[in-house]
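General statements about sequence and structure are easier to judge against a single worked case. For one protein, we set the task of working out the structure tokens from the amino acid sequence alone. This step matters because it turns folding into a mapping between discrete strings. The amino acid sequence and the backbone structure tokens for this protein are reproduced below.
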Amino acid sequence: MTDTTAPDISQLDVATLKELARVICGDDDLYYRSGRDISEFLTRAGWEHVPAYQGQYRREWTVELLIERRHLPGQLEKVLLRLAEPLEYLDEPEQLAAVVTAVNAFLIHEGLRIVTPGGRPRIITCDPALAGPGHHSPAEFRGTLADIITDPRAAQVLQSRMDEAQTCYENGAHVAAIIMLGSILEGVLLRAVLERDPSLLGNAKVDKISLAELIKRCHTAGWIDADIEKFCHELREYRNYVHPRQEIDATHTPDRDTLNVSWQVVGAVLNDLHASRPQPTS
């Protein structure tokens, strides 16, 4: 049964609050906030009666504020969600991902994580063991889906599936995450063909072409490397576990290691497609 209880944010350790203050202040090359900026940020987060900054050391002052309100319902949650709000970074949009990554790096030890399904941040529970040795985050994609896919609706849908796959990853739903990753692989390769060279479809109809053919044709076009093509077919086989009979008849049940490899495959495909994307003509 799925636990739908809202995460308890009021019990965060003081060490976690100190790390949270570091991110709010923007230390270590994160998004910098002056003392006045911090006061305004907390107000935008939904705090009432935030005291004016009066020249204290920024981080120590921020820690004090967080500790004072840690047990008040919703106060820390508001801060965490505001840190992951894109509107906070309109002048430096590239900082958003860095800030969310920095927050999750310490929040995971509390069994919590910020995710952004559909672009809207929320806090979920996760397994703190993900922070330990041998547990890895999904493969990093060095770009955005909008860099690869020009159709806004397609990019939005695939990004939403990426977010859902990560939620599955963080909660130990290995098979569900792998099936979702297989659907992302199919979707992004099909969009690449349609937007870059529809002639690669040949006589196949858009809703009939197989994932195996998409993998083959994208490799032939030079958009994904040979080693990645091979691993794509492995992910394709696991994607077929959407049919229970495939898993029942198989000799191997996907585990976290299988999922980690699958993430690496999707990340590599996205990076290859990003590197091979058509360059605008001057």
